[in-house]
Design brief:
The protein is α/β, with parallel strands linked by helices. It folds into 3 domains: 270 residues, Alpha-Beta Barrel (TIM Barrel); 135 residues, 2,3-Dihydroxybiphenyl 1,2-Dioxygenase, domain 1; 184 residues, 2,3-Dihydroxybiphenyl 1,2-Dioxygenase, domain 1 (Roll). The protein contains 21 helices and 26 strands.
């Protein structure tokens, strides 16, 4: 099947859209009428521009309010059609998409509709053109592809076919098996769009929430696989209407489109048994690297000690310290030059890189290259390994740590420091998950980045109430749950996510969660070590006892240690939070027992608690906000 994208799917002026679409690797494009109408260049110039860019224009759409109009309007409708046929010739395409009529004047007369398309087919054929009928779920009389196909079938004209739109079929729940009733040779065009599952009218859902394959919840793989089994080998064209995309980068959205179609076709091939899952299998988080100045590293070191970490190794050549606890590796990089330094110069002390264990880094790099994901490299010195890295959220890096070489890398690049007799382990075992905050319009792009590049599965998106706005959250995890990532965004600038983006200078990791097997013992040890826990109000615990029937003694212990709690049908989740480090990031400690999500019920409590205080550096007393103060 040939990959294509509708011009409406990306933002900007038409000439800018076309350049971005070509640069992303597309060879086919369909032109949306409004894009052409708002362009200062005539259709013939746009047609020449597409040819110069190596783009074939496969369709022009939509032609609206055509079939079933009253007799007095019919002549005017066909005059409009002839004018649009002129536009098709200028653009260099032979196909016009006709959407089902929305006009309140249209008549529910099937015979009239058939007659109208018969004449339109004759007129199109005389000019070497074709028309394809697309059903809209909010159409006046024709609302799904079964109705549209019945009209096309009765027309029996070779220049009249059907255009299928995956969203229009899947969102209302039209059975996928009904596609098999359609003559494959009469399918002239197929449009593809994903979407989250929402409860709202179909037109608003379609106009504002369509997204790329892999970003939503519709069964697109099954839909396209049905076409494959019908031996359809024509165009698959992305047609996306999404408010976020209108504020995003034209080039990135076009690139997302190509990635999403490639991934969709991979999934269809896997379903057919013709292709293995070639996504990168990441098994665990090997390290988290912070870039920091010497002074910030000192403060960060105090915070790490209060969490039970100890500095165990020093890089043989660089100002890089390895802190350890359990299977957790924290790397603090204070080198005066290089990537970590550049990152910390822009963002301050922050996570600049994540190391993920993978089995085959060269294969991972090749996949990244095919998906047009940028890699990163910098000079390495003696006794240093050249570890492949990929550009990631907010300009950070993901290092692809080869599983077979991980022990040797730590052994050869780092030397042991004298053991600190004052360090005390707090019982933290491993990295449970980390969260990344990003601009609202970027979130779907980064979701696609992760699900197409890595073997990660996404859960349903959730909305969380911050005291001053809504936050959208999307979690992903590897099969063994060794890697869990939570993506957060918010259209509201005063939410914690919004304030993080402002103070941090862009997207990045806001918090890292560490797992323990005994949160009560860990919490007591952390308190003894001087860790500053985020205080949770007593009202939370009163409600918690009523909701889950927890013992008063247990509730009292939880309240004393600021431990939050959630449970579901599968298991339980205890967790607590540190104060924020200089308004940038914080840590979480969690204990899971057969529980696979992230305590979303408690997030509003945590956000409210964080908003009540100025998040200053560790060691500084919490200061309540006064009226008129800006929460940090």
């Amino acid at each position: 099947m040939e990959r294509c994208i509708a011009s409406i799917s990306v933002n900007g002026a038409l000439r800018i859209k076309l350049r971005a679409i070509a640069d992303a690797g597309f060879e086919n494009v369909e032109i949306f009428e409004n894009d052409l109408l708002s362009s200062p260049e005539p259709a013939a110039v746009i047609g020449a521009m597409m040819r110069d860019l190596g783009l074939a224009c496969v369709a022009f759409q939509p032609f609206r309010d055509f079939e079933g109009m009253p007799t007095e309007s019919r002549g005017r409708v066909f005059d409009r059609a002839e004018r649009k046929f002129d536009v098709l010739a200028d653009l260099g395409t032979d196909l016009m998409l006709v959407s089902s009529n929305l006009s309140p004047d249209s008549l529910p007369d099937r015979a009239r509709m058939v007659d109208d398309f018969s004449e339109l087919g004759e007129r199109a054929a005389r000019r070497g053109l074709r028309v394809a009928y697309e059903a809209l779920p909010w159409g006046r009389h024709v609302r799904d592809h079964r109705d549209a196909w019945e009209v096309v079938r009765q027309v029996k004209h070779p220049a009249v076919g059907i255009a299928l739109d995956a969203f229009n079929s899947l969102a209302p729940g039209t059975p996928i098996d009904s596609l098999h009733a359609i003559d494959r040779d009469r399918i002239f065009h197929v449009q593809i769009a994903d979407a989250p599952r929402l409860t709202m009218d179909a037109q608003s859902w379609s106009r504002h929430f369509r997204c790329m394959p892999g970003q939503g919840d519709l069964p697109l793989v099954e839909f396209v696989d049905a076409l494959r089994r019908m031996r359809y080998d024509g165009v698959l064209s992305l047609e996306i209407f999404n408010d976020r995309f209108r504020a995003g980068s034209t080039a990135e959205i076009a690139l997302d489109g190509m990635r999403s179609l490639d991934y969709l076709m991979e999934q269809v091939a896997r379903r057919a048994g013709n292709q293995p899952d070639e996504r990168i299998d990441c098994t665990s988080v090997e390290f988290i690297e912070f870039g920091a100045s010497e002074e910030e590293a000192r403060q960060l070191g105090q915070m790490l000690r209060s969490l039970g970490f100890a500095p165990t190794h020093r890089h043989v050549r660089k100002a890089v310290t390895r802190w350890r606890q359990g299977d957790i590796n924290i790397v603090v990089n204070t080198e005066p030059e290089g990537f970590a330094h550049s990152h910390s110069t822009v963002h301050g002390a922050s996570v600049c890189a994540i190391g993920l264990r993978v089995a085959d880094p060269p294969a991972a790099l090749e996949r990244a290259r095919r998906l047009q994901v940028q890699s990163f490299s910098q000079p390495v010195g003696p006794r240093e390994y050249e570890i492949p890295a990929l550009r990631a959220v907010g300009g950070s890096l993901i290092y692809l740590m080869p599983e077979s070489e991980v022990p040797a890398i730590w052994r050869d690049e780092f030397e042991a420091l004298p053991r600190d007799p004052t360090s005390v382990d707090a019982g933290l075992k491993r990295v449970d998950h980390f969260s990344q905050n990003m601009q609202y319009e970027e979130m779907l792009s980064w979701l696609l980045y992760y699900v197409t590049l890595f073997r990660l599965e996404k859960t349903s998106a959730t909305e969380i109430a911050d005291p001053v706005g809504l936050v959208q959250s999307q979690a992903l995890h590897s099969a063994g749950r060794g890697v869990r990532i939570v993506l957060n965004s918010s259209p509201a600038t005063q939410t914690l996510v919004g304030r993080f983006l402002q103070s941090y200078g862009g997207a990045g990791i806001q918090h890292v969660a560490f797992a323990t097997d005994d949160i009560f013992a860990t919490a007591r040890q952390l308190r003894a070590l001087g860790m500053e826990a985020l205080p949770i109000p007593e009202n939370y615990y009163y409600d918690l006892g009523a909701r889950y029937g927890l013992d008063d003694t247990v509730l009292s212990r939880m309240a004393e240690l600021n431990i939050l709690y959630d449970e579901d049908a599968s298991g339980t989740y205890h967790h607590l939070y540190t104060r924020a480090f200089v308004k940038r990031f914080f840590f979480e400690v969690v204990q899971r027992r057969d529980y696979d999500v992230y305590g979303a019920r408690d997030t509003a409590i945590r956000l409210a608690a964080q908003s009540r205080f100025r998040n200053l550096a560790p060691g500084v007393d919490l200061a309540p906000l006064h009226p008129g103060d800006q929460p940090d």
